[in-house]
Amino acid sequence: xxxxxxxxxxxxxxxxxxxxxxxxxxxxxxxxxxxxxxxxxxxxxxxxxxxxxxxxxxxxxxxxxxxxxxxxxxxxxxxxxxxxxxxxxxxxxxxxxxxxxxxxxxxxxxxxxxxxxxxxxxxxxxxxxxxxxxxxxxxxxxxxxxxxxxxxxxxxxxxxxxxxxxxxxxxxxxxxxxxxxxxxxxxxxxxxxxxxxxxxxxxxxxxxxxxxxxxxxxxxxxxxxxxxxxxxxxxxxxxxxxxxxxxxxxxxxxxxxxxxxxxxxxxxxxxxxxxxxxxxxxxxxxxxxxxxxxxxxxxxxxxxxxxxxxxxxxxxxxxxxxxxxxxxxxxxxxxxxxxx
Length: 340
Known about the structure:
The chain is mainly β. 0% of the residues lie in helices and 56% in strands. The protein folds into three domains: 2-140, Immunoglobulin-like, CATH 2.60.40; 148-260, Sandwich (Immunoglobulin-like); 270-339, Immunoglobulin-like (Sandwich). It has no helices and 26 strands. The N and C termini lie far apart (51 Å).
């Protein structure tokens, strides 16, 4: 039972600047964990030196506002250490499993000023602390049904506009809930900007403790702006979520995905396709491809012009405001151009 989270990396100030580029990022962080179960962490790291990782379950205190008391000496309950990790400049995936004891108290039985916490750290091979974070976790009695949703298997990392993708997921629900599966766009700060395409269950019935597995088939619109043409750090993610029947958000998971142009190229090489002049103020002409349809989108994916005509030589863009646009030819080739 996990939630996909984007975690802030805390950098150790006691190390040299060369060490401060090292990162520890978690994409799957267990929450609502049954006692006596195995909690699995999905993460990636970079390190300029050989390293090791530590994941431990602790009891920490809470202040008057319910915030974690930053105390790395909290009461240790269980943990795992992964050693002999090689230095790497590329984010390298790792899976760490922590066996949660079955005989400890569930979260509901802890004192009001105490909570269970995952303490996570990346260290040098000689125990020098590099970076880490702390995250509260709820431990529940075995056999308790909770609202939870997670991806099943590896999500598709790259998808072409105009194609379809299967997104596998599983869920447990305490009562009838709405479920949404979507390809969504986010800004550089992780803020949701909108769904490109989505499908919903309204509502899905309550479950037992056994997760229900399902697959959503999402048709990616052909005019979806490719990831490499998004502006200002915007990006796409697969998103699955559980909501109340009134669409109040409860929890969910996200997974990064790259959207490319359609791979259905008919004749010739994509490299030979071009538009000119670029920037253009009036007629935008085509070269390297026989065009029968042309669609112009703004950088948000909104379609502005759509023309179908055999053997088109170009498209008039004089009505567009000055800015950056994408023209898609024959529902395959997507090319960025500037209107001035």
